[in-house]
Amino acid sequence: MPRYAAPLERLIEELRKLPDVGPRKAQRLAFHLLTQPEGAVRELAGAIVAAREQIRPCTRCFNFSAEELCPVCQDPQRDQSQVCVVEQASDVMAFERTGEYRGVYHVLQGHLSPLEGITEDQVRIGELVGRVESGTVREVILATSPTVEGEATAGYIVELLRPYEVEVTGLAIGLPVGGDLDYADQVTIARALQGRRGWRG
Fold first, then answer.
1. What is d(CA 3, CA 11) in angstroms, rounded to the nearest whole number?
2. pLDDT tens across 56-91, in order?
3. What are the residue ranges spanned by the domains of the chain?
4. 6-54 maps to which CATH number?
5. N vs C: which end of the chain shows fewer Cβ within 10 Å?
């Protein structure tokens, strides 16, 4: 016998699928939504559907975009020869909030993880090598997360880029090991970016 009415049970279960949402938080969110005006709930639902239908990967860097190229890639003031490699589109916003970085990005859309079955062909590493091969990139900044998977992904990219005339750098110490770039504060990210150094190894 369900604890709540079936539609409410379904809503709670769907909310639990969101990142960092446990049973209690899902329940609170569900009750909150049920107490909101119908118009507000429809606006939220419409925004979710519209974003899912209209947002796609940028054809150059794989950041989220409503057009063929994302706003960063379209910006003529950005340094197209400096590419910051991140794992997720949310990491782009972490760097943009600092106001310090004026290059462009490459979003891998994940990281290597053999234990999870995630291999090179499932992330955008080949496309990164292609950008370097074009000869327009002078520096690749590896800004993968400071986790085992992030470090392994960065190390793999370093090996792939060794044959090319490109400087490969990494963020300075300062980001917490095992942390997520999206949760790091702006000052920490800015200092890690400013103090970047040649990739070790």
1. 13
2. 999 999 999 999 999 999 999 999 999 999 999 999
3. 6-54, 77-198
4. 1.10.8.420
5. N
